[in-house]
Amino acid sequence: MALLALAVLILLAGSGDPSSPVRAARSEPTQDRASLLAFMGGLRHEPRVQWDANASACEWAGVRCDSGRTAVLELRLPGVGLLGSVVADTLGRISGLRALSLRSNRLSGPIPAELADLAQLKRLFLQDNLFSGVIPPGLVGLTLLHRLDLSSNNLTGPVPFALNNLTRLKGLFLENNHLSGSLPSISIASLKYFNVSNNELNGSVPRSLEGFPASSFVGNLDLCGAPLPPCEPFFPSPSAAPAAIEVPTKRSSKRLSTAAIVGIIVASIVVFLVLLLLVVCLFFRLRRKGAFRTKEKSAKGSESGTRATAAATGGRSIETGMTSSSKDEMSGSASALVEAERNKLVFVGSGAAEYSFDLEDLLRASAEVLGKGTMGTSYKAVLEEGTIVVVKRLKDVTAAKPEFDALMHTLGLTERPNLVAPRAYYYSTDEKLLVLDFLPAGSLSSLLHGSRGAGRSPLGWESRMRVALAAGRGLAHLHTTAQLVHGNIKASNVLLRAGDLDSAAFSDFALHPLFHPAPRIRPAGYQAPEVLETRRPTFKSDVYSFGVLLLELLTGKAPNQASLNEEGIDLPRWVQSVVREEWTAEVFDAELMRYADIEEEMVQLLQIAMACVSAVPDSRPDIAEVVRMMEQITDRTEGNDGPKSSQVDPATGAGDVGN
Ligand SMILES: *[C@@H]1O[C@H](CO)[C@@H](O)[C@H](O)[C@H]1NC(C)=O
Ligand SMILES: *[C@@H]1O[C@H](CO)[C@@H](O)[C@H](O)[C@H]1NC(C)=O
Ligand SMILES: *[C@@H]1O[C@H](CO)[C@@H](O)[C@H](O)[C@H]1NC(C)=O
Ligand SMILES: *[C@@H]1O[C@H](CO)[C@@H](O)[C@H](O)[C@H]1NC(C)=O
Ligand SMILES: *[C@@H]1O[C@H](CO)[C@@H](O)[C@H](O)[C@H]1NC(C)=O
């Protein structure tokens, strides 16, 4: 290598003047020559690479031109001690470049985005440098690329799914970087060499890549699935949280023997779970026989096609991965089809238009527990192509399949900005799953109570009002248009969409008919007193729970907060007692005290909330009325302040969180 590198160097004693006339009478790629000189001039180079200014650029070391000497086709400067970051407007201008090798230097900074302009590029070797930042998105426009080697740099960020655009790629080398996230489903027919080892990737190895050897994937943070050891089962038992599963590494070998014991216990749990999963899979497979075998064969080639088909048919359910030919094969075995029908994911509402995956994809997804509730456990599932959904695994469902089907189709139609409706479901004797959109901005509960204390930017008054109003509108729609009782109102079921508080949405609604008796709302403190006995939520009990939610926003106290529990009272009664003793201001969240001139609004909302939490159901207002009263509060203040200054709190000039 060193010899080769030396051979490429032309070390000259004198420093040639770049602008001096070229000796060679033959033609010269003048523009490319200038770009090359600018490129080299922008770098500090340790052993100085000197190109003879008197010679044609086509004779320079590392440069190869076309036969007519009109363009530079290749630039190869491996291991010549190039140092620094590439200046702009240099390499990107050598537009005829087919091959570029700058490997084994000490180039730093981001990979130049302008490489995206080299539309003719077939080979790009940047490995073994100090490039940092993300893989430039523009590289996926270089559709002629055969080989892309970015290995052994300091790259971060995801492996872009759009690399699939490089349809002629034979070799893709990304090993020894700091790439993170999950590995997208890269399926390029021509791909022969692939390496992402020694990065920080996690999740499962996509099916499209499982044909590459394990050494293409080793040394990552948390990759699993063939050819690596299998992933943890999609639905881990409550005792085996994802973090508990750790493949022993060299690093841990020095640890004490307790670690080994824990390892053995964890390993046996894993083995047990894997066996369980295998049995379940085998069961499904046997039941779905021919259907699945044909599906798998065609799935690889038709992943992108499926999405289009599913969207075009707009059907309520889809059979992902089935091409028309495999459908023909299937019609031969009608009974297999009936079996498959029975066991598949059913999309509801606009779910079929939004998503295309099947039960198997879901089972293969890597999952993380979001929360456990009285109705079951919620998981964040990351599918192969990077789609993220929430999967709710319901437990102790008592409803039969027809009731379940009917309710799901009703719920699927309740889509609104302020409601998070199910997109798909799965019903079998042993397993009932709901698939919902994943809203990454979290819940009102975490926004309100998460990491209180130093360094936290509190949820401002205007933000609280907007979220409350958005949730109220969702509930009003549910009650009046869909005629459904929510039955599970609490702050952790108010989800936020990034950057838009007005589209905060209620989730997990109207599921109580699936259970008998209806599950209690947990944490305690939201449930209307009468429902504790009847176990049957009503429109009026929803209004009570909504009132508790408003009190939570006003007081900053969660209804199950320890200080309340110690006194043995619930949030409404605590508020009542404080208000009765005429310390109204004491009731409000201390974090709201920094905002001037909002007390009147807070008192008005407090009055609405207190009406909602009336002990007598009939004296509680309807949700539509509640929303109307809340709108009046904001209308009035907007009137006072003139034109709405939406982002900034008019009183203090302080921006609210989450805008
Ligand atoms: C380049 O050419 C000039 C005259 O045209 C000459 O003086 C100089 O020595 C040459 N440099 C080299 C490195 O050959
Ligand atoms: C994919 O390649 C096509 C050319 O084949 C190009 O027009 C398109 O911009 C590329 N897509 C992306 C995301 O770069
Ligand atoms: C790699 O990048 C990180 C920041 O992204 C930086 O802290 C680190 O020094 C870099 N390492 C090298 C060897 O350049
Ligand atoms: C992968 O790691 C990222 C952080 O690097 C994390 O946000 C994500 O949840 C992880 N995904 C899985 C499936 O573990
Ligand atoms: C991938 O890269 C790693 C690290 O350089 C290497 O050990 C491994 O053999 C490579 N695997 C393949 C299949 O090339």
Automatic annotation (TrEMBL):
Keywords: ATP-binding, Leucine-rich repeat, Membrane, Nucleotide-binding, Phosphoprotein, Repeat, Signal, Transmembrane, Transmembrane helix. PROSITE patterns: PROTEIN_KINASE_DOM. It is found in: Membrane. One of its GO terms (cellular component) is membrane. GO terms for molecular function: ATP binding; protein kinase activity. InterPro entries: At_inactive_RLKs (IPR050994), Leu-rich_rpt (IPR001611), LRR_N_plant-typ (IPR013210), Prot_kinase_dom (IPR000719), Ser-Thr/Tyr_kinase_cat_dom (IPR001245). Residues 305-316 have a biased composition (Low complexity). Residues 1-18 form the signal peptide. The chain crosses the membrane at residues 259-284. Residues 295-329, 634-659 are annotated as: Disordered. Residues 364-633 form the Protein kinase domain. PANTHER family: OS01G0607900 PROTEIN, OS05G0588300 PROTEIN. This is Protein kinase domain-containing protein. It comes from Zingiber officinale.
